[in-house]
Specification:
By secondary structure, the protein is mainly α. The chain has 19 helices and two strands.
């Protein structure tokens, strides 16, 4: 069956292959969220952990994010070097370890649950890199990555609603995450197996988007040196974006409650569906742009527009012009418009526009490792330094800081990458380790 499916997909590179990629990658990552996010649907108010210095909910979120963050740092190397034959087994292993960790979360007493939820996050942080590696480097990559990106926007709301449904059946809070995960285990394994049937990029893909292959340690260092300025400002923006997005996601229950929607059924699914549709509508047209330099400009424009929308939505809420639900949708849309391209089309187009032979997954995981460090830092800042502030007031203030600083930093970053892209037009594609020498000289004359 596998060989026949691969052959059939190769004969339909512009129709059935992209659709197969979108559906299977979406389903795979959507199901992964059932092992990561359901625990945040509960409050765990009856538990006392770490002497009460942190609320149980914050302690669990921080513990999981610490594991997830460590996974991103490990993924900088692992996801950049993993071979095609190893990906499927890596996906299977990651999800099985995550589900076993949720079982430990259910049975271990007291503060030992923190170790279990840390272990849960440890393998899950690399799933995104494994999945993106199947999709990058194709002429239809934007469309495929847009579909994949919608998976975690929609899944975040759906799996939390699924967790609340499991709780409504009388399942204890600590057993709810592992129970929810079991519901999605077989669908995940099936989706990943079907995704693994996706053929490698063809010659036309390689010609337009550059060859994608694992990167050595030397090539990864050369990549960072070559794009040092632009990459630094992107990392600073992503540090704040990930913290903002994760805070809204992890404490969505509390934010909606303060806005007066605490008992509204399906509120997460409904709000995130509109966000996903908005992001999809913005991402898909980028796939129609064949010129990589123009596409890179469009991606950065999307990032800046997303940051601006966060501040606009917050100002409208405080002026009484929109409701709380509409505000959550607006800031969610703004956050994801700026956040999603980092994990999908941004670095795919950077690699293509600058003619860098390698993998976009390395840059994605470099950003992710820094971004989730920001997520942990923000949660500690809230509970340790602004413990008296409500979740809503803290989030409102952070919205303005992120929006205004993000616009400035992104503009500077674009100028650096645009310069590298113009320089690359005058050279043929070659490994990044060789391009580094040419780039150093170009920076003094360009």
């Amino acid at each position: 069956m596998r060989s026949r499916t691969v052959a059939w997909l190769n004969t339909h590179p512009t129709t059935w292959l992209p659709l197969w990629a979108i559906v299977t990658s979406f389903a795979t990552y959507f199901c992964m969220y059932a092992f990561r996010k359901p625990f945040s649907a509960a409050s765990y108010e009856e538990l006392v952990l770490l002497g009460g210095y942190l609320t149980p909910k914050t302690a669990f979120v921080v513990s999981q994010v610490l594991g997830y963050t460590l996974s991103k740092y490990l993924g900088v190397k692992i996801c950049a070097e993993i071979t095609r034959k190893q990906r499927l087994w890596a996906l299977f292993g990651a999800i099985i370890v995550a589900e076993l960790a949720l079982l430990l979360f259910a049975v271990l007493p007291g503060s030992l649950k923190l170790g279990a939820i840390f272990l849960n996050g440890l393998p899950l942080g690399m799933v995104w890199g494994f999945v993106v590696a199947y999709l990058e480097g194709r002429r239809s990559s934007e469309m495929q990555l847009a579909g994949l990106s919608c998976s975690f926007i929609v899944a975040s709301g759906v799996v939390k609603d699924a967790g609340r449904w499991v709780l409504s059946l009388g399942v204890p809070e600590t057993w709810m995450p592992v129970t929810t995960g079991l519901l999605f285990l077989v669908p995940f394994l099936l989706s990943a197996w079907l995704l693994d049937m996706l053929p490698e990029p063809n010659e036309g893909d390689v010609e337009e988007r550059v060859e994608r292959r694992p990167m050595t340690g030397e090539e990864r260092i050369a990549f960072c040196r070559r794009f040092a300025v632009g990459l630094l400002f992107l990392l600073l923006v992503y540090f704040g974006l990930t913290a903002f997005r994760d805070f809204r996601d992890n404490f969505g229950v509390e934010l909606f409650a303060e806005l007066g929607y605490g008992e509204a059924p399906g509120i997460f699914s409904r709000s995130e569906l509109w966000v996903a549709l908005g992001v999809l509508a913005a991402l898909v047209p980028i796939s129609w742009i064949r010129d990589n330099n123009l596409a890179l400009k469009a991606v950065f424009g999307m990032l800046i527009a997303g940051c601006a929308l966060i501040a606009i939505g917050t100002a409208l809420l405080q002026a009484g012009k929109i409701s709380g639900v509409h505000w959550m949708i607006m800031v969610g849309l703004g956050a994801y418009l700026a956040y999603v391209p980092f994990g999908s089309v941004l670095f795919d187009r950077v690699v293509a526009a600058t003619r860098t032979v390698g993998t976009a997954v390395f840059a994605i995981y470099l950003c992710d490792s820094v971004g989730y460090t920001g997520s942990v830092a923000l949660m500690f800042a809230k509970d340790l330094f602004q413990a008296d502030a409500t979740y809503l007031s803290f989030f409102l203030n952070f919205s303005y800081v992120l929006s205004l600083s993000g616009i400035v930093l992104l503009a500077i970053s674009y100028l650096d990458f645009a310069r590298a892209a113009r320089h690359a037009q005058r050279h043929t594609a070659q490994p990044v380790s060789h391009l580094e020498v040419a780039t150093v000289g170009a920076k003094t004359t360009d």
